[in-house]
Amino acid sequence: MRPLALFGGTFDPIHNAHLRVAWEASELLDADVRLLPASVPPHRDQPRASAEQRAALVRAALAGQQRLVLDARELQREGPSYTIDTLAEVRAEIGAERPLVLLVGADAFAGFADWHRWRELFDFAHIGVLTRPGHEGGTLPTELRTKIASRRCADAASLRESPAGRVLPIAVTPLEISASQVRALLAAGRDPRWLVPDALFADSRLLAPYRQR
Ligand code: ATP
After folding, report:
1. Which of 34, 64, 116, 150 could be bridged to 71 by S-S, CB 3.0 to 4.6 A?
2. How close is the Cα of 130 to the center of ligand 1, in Å?
3. Residue 32 gets which letter from DSSP?
4. What are the Cα distances from residue 50, in Å, to 24, 145, 208?
5. Least confident of 75-79, 87-91, 138-142, 158-162
6. Which residues form the Cytidyltransferase-like domain (predicted)?
7. What CATH number is associated with residue 164?
């Protein structure tokens, strides 16, 4: 069965590295990827743009292709966007058998043990850990290392053998782009052209929240 992959984030704003790594994971896993902007991210500072503005940016960025799609469910939920709730919802929708893969960047995975009910995430999905420049080879917290020791696998085919529970490192093209960098450029009156998709410049309202001082 083809896996379904979920790629959560603040997407404040979405940038070309988000898009490219999601695309590469989609090709490697032969999976559709849903991008899920978090309305109230529990693990970090609150976003600069509203949930609706960030979803509009994602929608604009994804136009013209079908592999990556926006899933706006976390924007409709009250309170913090806990990944465990999202995975439980999606699992209920797709049934018990279909492989589900949660994609996270290496930086996000390093903090995984702070996520709400993190140990249960492995019951709902596999985890695909995307390489990210500047976040190579760091030591994971002991409890996380212990939890994943017997779950690691080396090839994408392994994720088709069960619906959830494995951890797959996914080597993607190293792209040193961050949303913080894009926000800083816009706040300084500069133009983040080619760090974000051209579609974000097509409507001046899309990036306006970041241009305001
Ligand atoms: P910020 O700079 O505001 O912290 P960000 O660029 O890390 O933002 P997020 O929306 O926080 O973007 O990230 C969503 C997901 O995408 C996370 O799992 C993150 O690790 C991953 N990600 C973001 N940028 C990259 C990148 N350049 N390479 C690989 N993964 C990335």
Report:
1. 34
2. 10
3. E
4. 28, 35, 12
5. 75-79
6. 6-183
7. 3.40.50.620
Count of the separate structural domains present in the chain? 1
Atom of ligand 1 nearest to the CA of 175: 27
Helix (H) / strand (E) element for 28: namely helix 16-29
The yes/no answer to whether this complex scores an ipTM above 0.95 is yes
Assign 202 to helix, strand or coil: coil
Range(s) of the domain holding residue 40: 4-174
- 18 C-beta closer than 6 A to ligand 1: yes
Q: Which amino acid is at 46?
A: Q
| Residue among 178, 181, 196 to mutate when testing ligand 1 (max atoms within 8 A of CB) | 178
pLDDT at 132 over 70: yes
pLDDT value, residue 212? 77
Is the residue at 93 inside a domain? Answer: yes
Question: pTM for the whole thing?
Answer: 0.97
CA atoms of 71 and 63, how far apart (whole Å): 14
Averaged pLDDT for residues 163-185: 98
